[in-house]
Amino acid sequence: MQQKPNETPHITFIDQLVVPGDVVLDLTTRTNQTIKLGGGLRQEGDVISVTRAGHLRFSKPNKYWVESSQKRYVPCVQDHILGIVVDCRADNFLVDIKGPTLAFLPVLAFEGVIRRNIPRFESGTLLYARVVKAIPGMNPELSCMDANGKAAEFGPLKGGFMIETSTWLSRKLLSSPPCPVLVDLGKNLSFEIAVGLNGRVWVNAESPSTVIIVSNSIIKSEFLSPVKQKKMVEALFQKVFLERNGDEGCRCSKAEMCHRRSHNNLPRAAVSSYAAPPSHKGILVDVRATALQRAATIRNIKYR
Questions:
Q1: 67 burial class (0-12, 13-18, 19+ CB within 10 angstroms)?
Q2: What is the pTM of this model?
Q3: Is the peptide bond before 61 cis (omega within 30 degrees of 0)?
Q4: Buried residues in 102-123 as b, exposed as e (16+ CB within 10 A)
Q5: Chain segment 162-171, per-residue pLDDT in tens
Q6: Which residue numbers in the chain have pLDDT < 50?
Q7: For 114-140, how does the pLDDT look when each residue is reduced to its tens digit (9 = 90+)?
């Protein structure tokens, strides 16, 4: 008896570890369907094979990619990235995206821009952009507009600081449900964060101390489980408040943060988001952490 072909061979590979050469999808069983391939996959005849080691991911309706941890970014169409302008030319900007080659950004790839009002960027300007072309052996092409020709959140990023991470951590920060470390930080701090899939994260806040706390928490969370991420953030805030308070002798329990004005020496954004204990006269501030998807460079930062 002839064995029936497996109509969904890819199901066994989803969220599993794959290595170069593995065949994860047979296109002969998926006729009249459009498949979108992300990084780490390529088409070889009627099959889809793996080109780099990692975990195979799938997002509805029909996108597949291999998620792996690496320092160098391999450009892929529709990726949102953070680039640094390195040179300005008459028709385009040359942008460093941590890839094998520099990317170019046409001067007209901005909403409402014509020859009369071409934007001017200095070298070192940080941009949040979208990859529109990624042909092997050629420079990738970027755009600061979405598919509808709108600026959306794309464009230059002002202020803040950028940290560099692995591409795996960048995807983890953009995952759904939200990354636990961002959720826990957002309950106590008000900050702005932009994540590029090329391993760059931009953090902005009213106070430099808030930027340092968020940046260090993100860097340290890469290899921690969700439970350990939550404990790390709790321990971090306890340590910060103890260092700021000095020898004032706060008797608050470790499970709750002190709301006394004299103990709240962090920036006004760094106020806990739950009710103050009856024995303390504090101010409850509604804080939110907005994930705009942006990025810049903080290295060797300590909590102090």
A1: middle
A2: 0.69
A3: yes
A4: ebbbebebbeebeeeeebeeee
A5: 999 988 899 8
A6: 1-9, 247-251, 253-304
A7: 878 888 899 999 999 999 998 888 999
